Amino acid sequence: MVRGRRRGTGAVSTLLDLAVVCGIALATYGAWLLPELRLGPGRILLGAAFVLLAPGYAVTAALFPRRESTLSRTGGRLAPGHLTGLERVVYAVGLSIVTVPLLALFLNFTQWGITSQSVRLALLSLVLVATGMATVRRLRVPPNERFRLPLGNAFSGLTSTRPATAVIAVLFVLSLAVAGSALATVDSGQQLTEFYLLSQDEETGELVADDYPEAISPRGSAPIFVGIENREAGSTEYTVLAEFHRVNGTGDDRAVTTRWRTASYETQLGVGETNTTRLSVSPPEDGAGERLRLTLLLYTGSTPENPRIDDAYRTVHIWVDVPADGGAL
Questions:
Q1: How far apart are CA 57 and CA 76, in angstroms?
Q2: How many CB atoms lie within 10 A of CB 232?
């Protein structure tokens, strides 16, 4: 008896889908890091796949390492724990829709906050970790049970008794189209400017997003580094104002009662350009013995006559103690 050769048990065919997912994630992240790469519609499609498909697919692959088996069918239905190729795509989209907001919520309670850079890096990390787990779990499954891309019958579910799955698949394609259109709009003119504070590590001299000044003498000064990254549609003029604020009240009743300007500067950046400026900030003597808020306000174009946090394009702040005795940490 001649036995048919079992297909798809090799490492390449077994891990091809995971390699593609990793490739999408890395290519998209690289395109964001290198805005000079003009990928056109390709960049839009990569972004849509990275956000709507890659995270959920990686998690689904980690949860379901086994392929659909004819032995698992009973009465024309799959036994629990098995997914068709089409269902994997549906699960991937659903998990992506759930995962991305949860990642943003998690970042909101970290020192990094919700920025385009932190969300991109978090998504990339999730995809790489999940695909790593999926690889380990899949290789632990017997070769004849491992999931592989069902290239020959990926959409066989369309002719099976699963009409709901087919409808969801159509909705998935429409979602990709809508997401692509949204990303195209963002890519063409509604992008974000990154605005952040850095400090200099005393040992290495590197700029880090940590160890900001905690106390400054009213007769002294401390250096801070202000970073701006232009992610707008074109060259942009920026104005940065550094102010110390006396803030009274708590919660929604918090209000700025006194403000002192300590530094300001202007810069113009082209698309994708980054500027880091060193500022020397000195708290007012009137604030001695208090805890003041050092606020950086970013404006594009002209600056209003009476700048306020509400009318700034971007703001960042840290809290600084101003010792009454003139000492500083």
A1: 26
A2: 18
**Total number of domains in the chain:** 2
Q: What digits encode the pLDDT tens for the residues 60-107?
A: 888 888 876 444 444 445 444 566 667 788 888 888 888 888 888 888
Q: Are residues 96 and 153 in the same domain?
A: yes
Distance CA(176)–CA(181), nearest Å, equals: 9
Both 16 and 142 in one domain: the answer is yes
Query: What token pair was written down for 323?
Result: 């010792």
Burial of 252 (0-12, 13-18, 19+ CB in 10 A): exposed
Sheet holding 290-300, edge to edge: 255-269, 236-248, 290-300, 314-322
Distances in Å between the Cα of 63 and the Cα atoms of 86, 253, 326 are: 16, 47, 59
* 3-state SS class at 141: coil
Q: By residue range, what is the domain housing residue 285?
A: 194-322
Phi-psi region of 158 (alpha: psi -120 to 50; beta: other; left: phi over 0): alpha
Per-residue pLDDT tens digits for 162-221: 554 454 455 445 545 544 544 444 444 445 789 999 999 888 889 998 889 999 998 889
For 63, 200, 319, the CA distances from 204, given in Å and listed in that order, are 42, 8, 25
Determine the Cα–Cα distance for residues 9 and 328; give it in Å rounded to an integer.
66
Q: Is residue 110 part of a domain?
A: yes
**Same domain flag for 154 and 247:** no
Strand partners, 112: none
CA-to-CA distance for 46 and 53, rounded, in angstroms? 10
Residues in the chain: 329
Residue 216 near residue 322, CB atoms below 8 Å: yes
